[in-house]
Amino acid sequence: MFVSEKEIEIRYAETDQMGVVYHANYLVWMEIGRTSLIEDLGYTYAGLEREGYLSPVTDLTIQYKASMKYGQKATVRTWVESHGKLRTTYGYEILHADGTIAALAKSEHVLVKKDTFRPVSLRKVDAQWDAKYTEIAKVKS
Prior knowledge:
This protein is of the alpha+beta class. The protein has a single domain (4-136), classed as Roll (Thiol Ester Dehydrase, Chain A), CATH 3.10.129. It is 26% helix and 34% strand. The strands form 2 sheets. The protein has a 5-stranded antiparallel sheet. Strands 2-7 form a two-stranded antiparallel ribbon. It is elongated, with a radius of gyration of 16 Å. The two termini are 14 Å apart.
């Protein structure tokens, strides 16, 4: 299983009144992790958009395990959990510097044509990218 890792330096603006990272910032970090994974594989999400495609989130689950605070560094580990004809599910671990799990998450995405929002198979858009996702997926379809 291929796992991309991206370190995030937690900024003061990402914390709430209690001094811990506000829960919605984990979603931003997941996007950073997903983008990093795609780039590590030699592709770009921006390139996909330029070709007229988007990949909206259709489902998201997140479990918060241990809070994070300003001044700490988080590591976002991202992988392809599963990849099918129309749906790709990414898995995430967000870790403290000592390896303690701060959050576990999954996000499901569907590739759509930008102008119509009609679903399209990644295989039809980029067969090599599709094959790479199939190869590295944790759960084989």
